[in-house]
Write a structure and sequence with these properties.
Largest sheet: none
Order of helices and strands: HHHHHHHHH
CATH class of one domain: Mainly Alpha
Helix content: over 70%
Number of strands: 0
Distance between the termini: 203 Å
Length: 282
C-alpha cells in the first residue's frame, strides 16, 4: 500500500501556508476527490516548488487516480525532504509502484534505501522480502520460459533438421535412381556393344570358316581333277609313238632271239642224248 504521511508533512505545511483547514487535501483524497486534491497541491507547488511535502501529497493523489507515471515523478521530487522518515516514505512508495508494476528488481533498490533511512519500517522490510521472492519467481519463470523456448527451438530445429534430412534423402534417392538408370543404360549399352561385337566376331568366324571350306573344297577339286588327269592315258606325240614302236620292235626282236636260242639249245640236247656223233648243222 502507498504510505500517506499527510498528518506529519501537510499539517506543518498547512499551518504556515493555507488559510483553510489543514485536513482539507487529505479529506479530498479519502473521499476519492483526487482531482480537487491535486489542484490544492498544485496551488502550493506553484508558490513553493521546493516543498517536498506538497509533491509527496500530490504523488499520493496521482497514484490514487491511476496516473502512475506522474505519481512517480512527484515522489522522486519529494525525496528532497528534510527528514529521513519523509525520504524513507518516498522511497517506499516508489518501491511499491515498481513492485506493483512487476519490476521487483528495481523495487528492491528503493526498499533497501527506505530501510537504510528507517530500519524500523516493518512494511518496507515485508515488501523488500516480497520483492525478493517475486524477483526469484520471475527469474525462475524466465528460466523456465527460456528452457521451454530452448526446447521449442530444439524441437523446431529438430523438425527442420528432419525435414532437411528428408529432403536430402529424397534428393539423394532421386540422384541414386537417376544414377542407377544411367548405369543400367550404360550397362545395357555395353552389353549391346559386346553382343554386337560377339555377333560380328561370330559372323567373321563363319565367313572365315566358309572361305576356308571353299578353299579346301577348291583344293580338293583340284586334287581330284589332277588325279583324274593322271589316271587318264596321255595322248602321245609322233615322236613318243615312234619311240614306243621301237621299244615294241626291240622287245619282239629280243623275244625272237630268245626263242631261237631256246630252239638251238633243244637241238644240242637232242644230239647229245642220241649217242651218235652228228656233224654240226652249220
Amino acid at each position: 500500500m502507498i504510505k500517506m504521511l499527510f498528518r506529519i508533512s501537510l499539517s506543518i505545511l498547512m499551518l504556515s501556508v493555507f488559510a483553510f483547514s489543514k485536513d482539507k487535501p487529505v479529506k479530498m483524497i479519502e473521499k476519492g476527490d483526487y482531482q480537487e486534491a491535486i489542484k490544492e497541491y498544485d496551488r502550493v507547488i506553484n508558490e513553493h516548488p521546493e516543498w517536498s511535502q506538497a509533491h509527496f501529497g500530490k504523488g499520493v493523489a496521482l497514484y490514487k487516480s491511476n496516473n502512475i507515471e506522474e505519481a512517480m515523478k512527484e515522489f522522486e521530487k519529494s525525496i528532497a525532504a528534510k527528514t529521513d522518515i519523509e525520504k524513507s516514505a518516498a522511497y517506499y512508495n516508489l518501491g511499491n509502484i515498481l513492485l506493483q508494476s512487476q519490476k521487483p528488481d528495481e523495487a528492491l533498490k528503493f526498499f533497501r534505501k527506505a530501510l537504510e533511512l528507517n530500519p524500523q519500517d516493518y512494511e518496507a522490510k515485508h515488501n523488500y522480502e516480497l520483492a525478493k521472492r517475486m524477483l526469484q519467481q520471475q527469474q525462475q519463470q524466465q528460466q523456465n520460459q527460456q528452457n521451454q523456448n530452448n526446447q521449442d527451438q530444439n524441437k523446431d530445429q529438430k523438425k527442420d533438421q528432419q525435414k532437411q534430412d528428408q529432403q536430402n534423402q529424397d534428393k539423394q534417392d532421386k540422384q541414386d535412381k537417376k544414377d542407377q538408370n544411367t548405369q543400367d543404360q550404360q550397362d545395357q549399352q555395353n552389353k549391346d556393344q559386346q553382343q554386337d561385337q560377339k555377333d560380328k566376331q561370330d559372323q567373321e568366324k563363319k565367313e572365315d570358316e566358309k572361305k576356308e571350306q571353299q578353299q579346301q573344297d577348291q583344293q580338293k577339286q583340284e586334287e581330284q581333277k589332277k588325279d583324274q588327269q593322271q589316271q587318264q592315258p596321255q595322248p602321245q606325240s609322233e615322236e613318243q609313238k615312234k619311240q614306243e614302236m621301237k621299244k615294241q620292235e626291240a622287245a619282239q626282236l629280243l623275244n625272237s632271239l630268245k626263242q631261237n636260242q631256246k630252239d638251238m639249245m633243244k637241238k644240242r640236247v637232242k644230239v647229245k642224248t642220241s649217242g651218235s656223233k652228228k656233224e654240226k648243222d652249220w
